[in-house]
Design goal:
Length: 508
Amino acid sequence: MGMVGPIRVTFACSMMFFFLLGICRGSNIGVCYGRNGDDLPTPDKAVQLIQNHNIKHVRIYDSNIQVIKAFANTGIELMVGVPNSDLLPFSQFQTNTDSWLKNNILPYYPATKITHITVGAEVTEAPANVSAMVVPALTNVLASLRKAGLHKRIKLSTTHSLGVLSRSFPPSAGAFASKHASFLKPLLEFLAENRSPFMVDVYPYYAYRDSSTNVSLDYALFESSSEVIDPNTGLLYTNMLDAQIDAINFALMGLNFKTINVMVTETGWPSKGSPKETAATPDNAQTYNTNLIRHVINNTGTPGKPGVGIDVYIFSLFNENRKPGLDSERNWGMFFPDQTSVYSLDFTGKGVVDVSTGANLTSANGTWCIASANASDADLKNALAWACGSGNVDCSAIQPSQPCYQPDNPISHASFAFNSYYQQHGATANACSFGGVGVRTDQDPSYDNCLYMTTGNKAASATTTNGTASHSKAPSSSSVQRVSVQASSHLLTLLALFFGMYFIKGTI
């Protein structure tokens, strides 16, 4: 017991340092553009699709000239890759990286806004032991960039799977596998010296699929109404992605590389799988990626590094029919090869639109969500406050002088807000719960100039959202109040970080 205080104080100081380092960093959402298919659109058409959906950050897995040229003058930030098959020549001779940069990068930069180069991908999982080649290859590519004057403009790193860890739960016990020590030590030194990110591919889907008895689906989908507590730190986790990222953060901290930020270079959820992959559905894929986008752009960080921005890339742009393995491997795409959407997704995090058909005059499943006539005014007001606040619903239409303000009563206002939330979350039964005060109807509740939102068509009276939510599951009446308590708790935690007092929370 005598050691608890000093340990907590040390932890607090470290976490405050983390927070101060990253407080001004914004978070970005990107998309992985893989091309392992024989029916995919041309790069020009793919880039047009990317632009149409306001995607600003893209990762490709090689340095294909036609693809790089397609991104020219778009303003899209591009991450290009050096595949594992090129690690040997890149690590052996500087002239090889000089030639590659001269032929594949320099002719198209800066018209194509290349911001990162990944040198190798998940090398610890590669069949052949190529990890020893990574740092020499990185060093040579860096030298080539320095000759071109681009070493400060283009960041270099390599990607990892979570298999690089020997332990990931609880997050504070995160540690790198000792068998990778000879590879990781010089790599982390390179990343720290060059202020490059630690890139990791993180998939809560696999954690749930392979251990559904220990991991709840809601926890994997950012839909959990309860927390998992790290017993060593007292930190509360409401989703698996944060826990997995913090396992990496703590592993880095354990090796005294506190200044290296984590970048998630792949995450996502498949829309279809083999018979035993029951969680691979369009609804779950939509839920995961919608909640992921909102979580990232809110800049909440993780419990271990609150407020620290983190860039995340969704895998993937298209279903890729040539990928081997289970059916899920070929169904991670947000779009089919014909460029229609697999499910509805909005990359701004402000709502869901049907990206394949544009405007749609009927609600998803032909239903809307309204307030129950049997609900009390108090319950309706609580649920309405949640929907317009943490629920991320644009409630401007029910303000005075706006189209849906009249009739001015809780049931009318709540109905409009409930339906907006319901449509934004795929028109599922769970999205119309609101603690039992929401009910579904097949009759369009729109009236006069008050148009109720549908999945594919934002109502004229509801075109924007306030963008403040990090939680998306419809609450019970009691959990509406709990959101305010959590917000206060998070504010106190951040204040405590500044004063080095985080140990207080750990001892409560």
